[in-house]
Design goal:
The protein is mainly α. The protein is built from 9 helices and 6 strands. The protein has a two-stranded antiparallel sheet with strand order 1-2. A two-stranded antiparallel sheet has the order 3-4.
Length: 296
């Protein structure tokens, strides 16, 4: 096969073009810190990168969901803590009023404080956080306890679970059923507190004494509800910790797949630069001679 000067020149130019392409590739890797900057650079890495990125985004969404569950649970726990304090104060007042040393006027005064504590419990039942009534199930836009035109309280608790997905295939109940704690049995017209208030105003010591057991039962309801909520909060902490570890692993895997190894990239660049300079040097010597050079 006859090799001409033109063939040598064309081959040299083609190889130099490829060399420039490699130099550009390594320079891009060093400047961006990524192995590839377009899918065509390496389709396999690009496809794996999409999968890893989806996993990271999914974990980040689950972590945002856990924050939402924390918001529900923390505010519910605070509200139940306040409810416990109010009920304990009511029990303390009932125990005092049941004492023979208290007269009708003193019991009348105690009834006024119990009335205010009852109003406070209703306010707690209507706790609103970020525009959501947290003790009314999924019906978060409406207060569970309202007043009619006559000033009487109406109870409309929606005992539906607010389930939020906090891990793949795992949902956790974020709310507390308000009727378990703030129902009509406690706050209604014929509820425990109204019976106590009536007994205090009527100076009925026996009825006051009988109400103490009912108040204790109401306190137990709150304590049991908080215990159930606490168990779910502990589980949430475990899942949140697991998500944090999964996020670290997923990001590390994504980094290894996409991010450049700087030492390797610098070595490749220096090697390619050396080869390129050598090719340029050899090319200038091969491509310089003309017919006049042979005639000298």
């Amino acid at each position: 096969m006859r090799v001409t000067q033109g063939m040598i020149s064309n081959s040299m130019l083609n190889n130099l073009s490829k060399s420039y392409g490699k130099l550009d590739k390594y320079l891009d890797q060093l400047s961006t810190g990524r192995k590839i900057n377009r899918p065509s650079d390496n389709p396999f890495i690009a496809i794996k990168g999409m999968s890893y990125r989806t996993e990271v985004k999914q974990i980040e969404q689950f972590k945002r969901n856990t924050n939402e569950v924390h918001n529900w649970m923390d505010n519910s726990d605070d509200a139940l803590s306040n409810a416990t304090s109010a009920l304990q104060r009511i029990r303390e007042l009932a125990s005092q009023a049941a004492n023979d040393t208290y007269d009708a006027e003193q019991r009348e005064n105690i009834s006024k404080e119990v009335e205010q504590l009852k109003e406070d419990l209703i306010d707690i039942a209507n706790t609103n956080v970020n525009g959501k009534y947290i003790f009314n199930g999924t019906n978060t836009n409406e207060a569970p306890i309202t007043k009619d035109e006559a000033g009487n309280y109406e109870f409309d608790f929606r005992d539906s679970d607010v389930n939020i997905e906090i891990a793949k295939g795992t949902s956790l109940k974020a709310n507390v059923e308000g009727s378990d704690v703030f129902g009509e049995d406690l706050l209604g017209e014929d509820g425990v507190l109204n019976k106590l208030i009536t007994a205090l105003k009527d100076n009925d010591r026996d009825a006051i004494d009988a109400s103490i057991g009912e108040i204790d039962s109401s306190i137990d309801d709150v304590v049991n509800t908080r215990a159930d909520l606490g168990a779910r909060m502990n589980r949430l902490d475990l899942i949140e910790n697991r998500l944090s570890h999964q996020e670290i692993t997923a990001k590390d895997t994504m980094s290894k797949n996409e991010n450049v190894d700087y030492e390797e990239a610098i070595t490749n660049l220096i090697t390619q630069e050396t080869l390129h300079r050598a090719a340029l040097s050899a090319g200038t010597r091969i491509m310089q001679p003309t017919l006049l050079d042979f005639l000298r």
